[in-house]
Amino acid sequence: MKSIGLIAGLCLLAIGAAGCGPDCQSTCNILYQSEECGIASPGSTQSELLSTCLDACENALEIPGELGRYDPNERTPSSQNVELKNDKQAAVWMDCVVETACENIEEGYCAPVW
Predict the structure, then answer these.
(1) pTM over 0.90
(2) pLDDT tens across 3-53, in order?
(3) Which residues contact 111 (CB under 8 A, 6 or more apart)?
(4) Is 4 a member of any domain?
(5) 41: β partners
(6) What angle do CA 17, 71, 21 make, to 5 degrees?
(7) What are the backbone dihedrals phi and psi of residue 108, each rounded to the nearest 5 degrees, phi first?
């Protein structure tokens, strides 16, 4: 009986851990609403940037796909347009934002940043 309880406990732990990573809201908040980064863009309010970020992230999460050539850990020049195209890209992008210093994000890492 103890082994059944242990297995059930491990299953619940695994299920709970699956939802512990970053989400679109927390990731976009780091970029635009926090004292951490608070990234600004000329001609856009923080509210507009947050909304754009959330829309792009949530839309990408609805589309199954592969990473392809997308690598948010590579520096991307500001002249290059990057778009999150699917759930895998959105997931690695969120991890990148959470794990990267704000000054590096502003230098072109963890693209896209709006």
Answers:
(1) no
(2) 444 343 333 333 344 457 899 999 999 999 878 799 999 999 999 999 999
(3) 72, 76, 80, 82
(4) no
(5) 44
(6) 15
(7) 115, 5
